[in-house]
Write a structure and sequence with these properties.
By secondary structure, the protein is of the alpha+beta class. It has 2 helices and 8 strands. A hairpin with a 4-residue loop joins strand 6 and strand 7.
């Protein structure tokens, strides 16, 4: 009887610890990536450091080769972040306009969309959302924080 109780307690503890741990593929998000904006022909790179502390949401700190950075949150199998960029999009007159960008992508396929809201919508409107893909270029080169 004591053995059964001990085994039951061990199984419950193991189940709780697995339930609280972040998904392994979220921790594997750390590394360097090429970002391809589909249809725009734009390529940049991201350096990512992700962490999934027990009983907390997974977070990835992203630094873009374009000079901006942001923190993405993982929920429901999707990473999402919002970045306020003073040079987020091209205006009709050739200048760059401020934009609040929302990035969202699937944690497994690494396909997503970026959309923006312009601070100067009358003089510099934002175009439609862009699809993008991420491709890991240097696995394991950046360690999780």
């Amino acid at each position: 009887m004591t053995v059964v109780r001990g085994l039951t307690a061990t199984l419950i503890a193991a189940g709780v610890s697995v339930g609280l741990a972040g998904p392994a593929w979220a921790d594997d998000f750390s590394g360097r990536y090429t970002l391809d904006l589909i249809g725009a022909g734009a390529h940049t790179s991201w350096t990512v450091r992700s962490t999934c502390p027990p009983s907390r949401q997974c977070v990835a700190h992203i630094t873009s080769s374009s000079g901006w950075s942001g923190d993405a949150q993982l929920a429901g199998g999707r990473w999402t972040m919002t970045v306020d960029r003073p040079d987020g999009h091209s205006c009709p007159d050739g200048t760059r306009g401020a934009e609040l960008q929302t990035w969202s992508w699937d944690a497994i396929s690494l396909r997503g969309q970026v959309s923006g809201v312009s601070a100067e919508s009358a003089t510099c409107p934002v175009g439609p959302a862009n699809d993008f893909t991420l491709s890991k270029t240097v696995p394991g080169a950046v360690r999780p924080v």
